[in-house]
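Step 1: inspect the first sequence and its tokens.
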Amino acid sequence: MSPKTIQLYLYCKMPYTTTVFKMTCVIILAAAVYLQCSLWLKLATRENYEYRNTKQKRVSISNIPMGRHTPPVLSNHCYRYGKLAAVNQCCRMYDYGINNRQNILECAARSPAWFDSNRGLKTSKLHWMFVGDSHIRNLYDVLIRRLKSPLLVYRKKSYREGLWRKMDTLLLAKYQGIPVLVKHLKAPLLLTFTWSPLLELLPNLTKEWLNDEETPPTLVVMGSALHWTHKTWDIYKNIGAEEAAELYKEYISSLSDPANKKKLIQRRMSVVFKLLDHLPASSNNITNIDTYNRIASEVLPAEVVVWSSTIPLSDLYVKECERKKRDTPETKLWRCKDEKHTGYVVIQRYVDMLLNYGCNHILNLESPYCRHE
């Protein structure tokens, strides 16, 4: 083939070759864009599901018996979760934040009167008692930190012993194992905490409340599971989750005394049982936490309110700690190195929920538990 013929041949084929090349490039580029978009959409959808629907990560937190009534403020079904926050979709809650417009002291001042048989007269006092393990203690700690005031004092040991001291010393102290009382010098407010990680002291405390031996609480917040998981670790490891939780089930069942129900109702005493938060996966017996929460939801009597709305927030906290390890010892907002507790950054939200439930329940408002728009 002559050079002229070759040149003519290339001239004739070039347009066709260029078109095919362009089409091929377009197809490859379109395929690449499609794959990239699909991958991005898949990741975004997955992240959105894990982030916004964290409460569905562990199905068992929604397995609360249908016959049980949990108020909207404490039920996980009423919240939209995200960015370590929970927005109630069932009702609008009061603001008990750090710059609170609604103060717990107003709640205490308006609390109904009760009869004190020891003094032979009626008195008005908002008495909230916290009983349980370190998770309940942290909740109590955040509450009294929020109420920090020169008019708040505390003492340890018992109701009738010990000197009343300034609050700034309590905030630096460890009060594990010792009952702590915090009161306001001018408002009728009393907040107590009793260390009882297995709730072993609850029967005696209940007897004191019902027999007027001590100032009966208007609200009792309790919780216990973490120490039970440690106590039954060998059973869990060698036999199984259900078998390990059987001891817990038997004990929780024994706490329900039908004879006390009527007295508790007459005293308008509200009892809240806080379910155990989800903890980092490396914690011992972590996979058994849902079993204990389910048992508490099933076994506790209907008069006891099961508090489940904190669990999705703990999931978000654990996820954030996995993304970025944070530790702020002074404020305790972040405690990512602590595999047994959540940081105060989410416990602050727990206190918001509790204040809304507690104050509205005690005051017996027309719209119980929350303010509807």
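Step 2: inspect the second sequence and its tokens, then contrast the two.
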Amino acid sequence: MALSVIKLRATNQAIAVTCVYGLNDPKARAALWDKLIEISKTTSAWIVMGDFNVVRNLCERAGPNPPVTQDILAFNACLAQCYLDDMHNMGFEFTWSNKQGSDTRTWARLDRVLVNPAWLAKFPASYALSLPPGLSDNSPLMVSVASDSPVKRRFSFLNAWQDHPDY
């Protein structure tokens, strides 16, 4: 995991992007949390996305085995320190399934897109879309980067309109 800077073609703006994969082991994820905290101190508008392998709260997991509260607390503490929060998300509520039988099937929201306040100020209309998982056990995420600045359009007037009886 590293910080990348990407230039948007449409607006020519540079954005900071971090793609992550959180390991299944909570102790190994602690190193990820430390790295995110370190990066958060060096960047302005920032988007972090990927498979974190942990949920943010109990209702983000459904199935026979409940999530570990300590893992949730560690994840949320990291996000609070980094000033990261979930980007507005549409699509599937759960982004991962173990695809097992009905008695042991588990669903969870492990994949997410996080942004900091500087990102939201720059791109307030941006959102994430959780797509169908297909063959994978994870749902792909698609991000729409948009600002709320209106598009300037040229006003046109056709003189012939004045001759129309309903004008």
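Step 3: confirm your contrast with the notes below.
The chain has one domain: 3-163. The longest helix spans residues 26-40.
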